[in-house]
């Protein structure tokens, strides 16, 4: 059996860093877990399953080789989604090297470029009053979320699961009344409030267990202030629409909209 293992995927193009070793942001969750954020992480349409299916269908085991094992590959993806700069870091023999190089070079030019700061979140970049925090099983939500302001806005919850990052929830806080004032729980209250009838602290901990996650990474943004009077419900709707456009569904914890 010949297995292809992708060591890393880099982005090339205007404003992107072409070095595999230089990453946009590295943050420590705890003594043993580090989270690496890459500015525009590419993903094959249909996800990892579809990518593996493509490789399985196209891979031809070289007759000249009698080796079995893994071939480690690194490649770059342009802003147009084109695979380039394919490099085989470790192979079994020259024949496996050649086949691995051929397969990766044939990947369709349809890689989707998105994640935390791609077009889906361009809407959030203008909000200067923002922040984020990690939440793990041993944390108190009241303690880690104490610096969140009581202002109207939106928040996004990411689950960090075995090295993968998934957006699992998009929410809003604050409700605009007819007289122009806001009512209801604001950001601090909303994140510390209840989800599905139980306190957020307990809900988040139960979801960490259910997902097998290392931690949750929670980002918040004040969307309505003197500089940007954007209704939280409006911003939430834009984010959910863009998430649906990409994935064809809502985030895992957004049951409906």
Output the keywords.
alpha+beta; 4-stranded antiparallel sheet
Structural description of this entry:
The chain is α+β, with helices and mostly antiparallel strands and 257 residues long. It is built from 6 helices and 15 strands. Strands 8-15-9-10 form a 4-stranded antiparallel beta sheet, with helices on both faces. The chain has a 3-stranded mixed beta sheet with strand order 1-5-6, covered by helices on one side. A two-stranded antiparallel sheet has the order 2-3. Residues 5-26, 32-37 and 112-119 have low confidence and may be disordered.
Chart the SSEs and their pairings.
Layout: E1 2-11, E2 25-28, E3 34-37, E4 42-43, H1 47-58, E5 69-77, E6 83-90, H2 94-105, E7 112-113, E8 130-135, H3 141-144, E9 153-161, E10 164-173, E11 175-176, E12 182-183, H4 187-191, E13 194-195, E14 198-199, H5 200-211, E15 215-222, H6 232-247
Parallel strand pairs: 1-5
Antiparallel strand pairs: 2-3, 4-7, 5-6, 8-15, 9-10, 9-15, 11-12, 13-14
Fraction of residues in H or I helices: 10-25%
Can you count the beta strands?
15
Assembly classification? single chain
Mean pLDDT across all residues, rounded?
76
Q: Termini distance?
A: 46 Å
Integer count of domains: 2
Radius of gyration: 21 Å
The biggest sheet, with number of strands, parallel, antiparallel or mixed sense and barrel status, is: 4 strands, antiparallel
- Helix-strand makeup class: alpha+beta
Q: Unreliable runs, pLDDT <50, ≥5 residues? A: 5-26, 32-37, 112-119
Instruction: Give me the strand/helix succession.
Output: EEEEHEEHEEHEEEEHEEHEH
If strands are numbered along the chain, what order do they take across the biggest sheet?
8-15-9-10
